[in-house]
Amino acid sequence: MGLCESTKLLGCIVFSLSGLLLLSTIVMDPGGQQAFRLLGLILAVMSYSVTMLFFDTRKGVIATGLFAGSLLASMGGFLWLEELLLVSIALAGIMALLAFTGSLGLTGLSALMVSGFLAYTGLLDAAITRIALAASCIILGASSIIITGRRHSSLLAVSSLPMLLEASNWVVWLSSAITGVSLMLSQAGINRVSRCPFRTDSGLVFSGILFSVPAIAYLTLLGFAGVVYSIWVFGVILLMAGSLVPQRV
Amino acid sequence: MEGPLGRMLHLLSLTKPRQLALLMLTMYGSYLVAADHVDPGTLALLFLVGLGGAGGVTALNMYLDRDIDGLMKRTMSRPLPSGKIGEAEAMAFSTGLIVMGLVAASMINSYVALAVLLGLFFDIIAYTELSKRFSSLSLVLGSIAGSMPALGGWAAGEGHISLPGLLLAGMVFAWQPLHVWFIGFYYLEDYNRAGIPIVPHGVSLRVVALVLVASIASIPVLAWAFSYVEGYGYITSLLVTLLSLSAIRGALAFYRDPSRRRAFSMLKMASPIIAVAFIGYPVEALI
Questions:
Q1: Nearest Cα residue in chain B from A205
Q2: Nearest-by-Cβ selection for B129 from A39, A231, A246
Q3: How many domains does chain B have?
Q4: What is the ipTM of this complex?
């Protein structure tokens, strides 16, 4: 993978993560705290614009149309339009991910997004949703080995286990998924790419883990708390920051 | 100065105290305008939000930019490139500050926390990591981060984000090209040495002048829109307009004669515009 591909990959990953974040914020909407929904939406828009920088034109145009439609829908405020937003996000994300055929990790991400969407809308019953989630976890674990080149990194998929244990709690499993994927990415997958404009900063990655993992544990065990959720988002941003440290090519 | 006190001062200097003071001014100014009554507890929490959200993010920025800071005369004496403090120390300090800011922000309301997180995302990921070293247009993303304290202050006062708060944040956003681009002009050699494509890299001076004039001209437009929506602040908007017109005149003079001396005078002209706005509106709100 060359410079351009790795940058595209990064853009898509960031977009996918924020798409998941948006899903989680829309689904939970704790006590009508619109701020978190807004946060997810803005991050998704920002990340999407970054992704667009690296897209090829045709897919980009289609995905932009879908995303713009979904944004308009979200502004409408009707429930069915929010579901349309979820569909659009999932479709746009999948289109982005399909640009990189052969990447199991990204296929896992899209599987997560689709299963999340299907479960949210109730199109699948609980048992099938759990199977879809379990499959996503397995793909996540396998892809962490492939991306990082280290067998022990499959342990990172453990961070996704709360999804299975607490499948009824959307905050928990979607947050777990994002943290798991972020951890995987931080395992130097990007650093292995030759002539990549980015490098990994182990200190930042460690800090990201330090904040995001206990936050996930708290959310799993004790339920939602705004401040913990904020710290979890902070941890994820640190993980991203640790994987995207710029360097001269 | 050596010893623990000197070390603490070096750490605090990572927050760029002068820049932090200006960001704090925009945050407190917005809060005072938005709040029905001023709550001392919220004022104290906002200090922690500003120190953590703005200062902590700036410190993290310094950590990420330590390699290029060491290449520029203007920044090579900063604590990290000069070795006065260690990398781990700087990172622990900056992340600690940000967490403190997030906790304080969440204690006020979730919209303030949202502003802190957006500032973090735009400053660190979008500006510093994804665009600063690759595009001269990175300033746009950095300006979004710079406007977040004003938005957070408004959210602290009103309890949510609304149009007047966005207009105030928009003023800070529109003001930043004036501030940052003339720093770039003034220290152009330095930026070239570090390989940072700051304006006018790859862009003609004419385009830069046009964009600058447009961004400065939008400051009074936003100021008058704010006064119209809120129904007060007309004197402040008038002062902002006069200062902005003066800045436009200066920008056009710089276009005709792009010298370091003129860049420096433009640099000095920038801060009063934002200071007048964020002191003037709260004063007029009280009257």
A1: B91
A2: A246
A3: 1
A4: 0.87
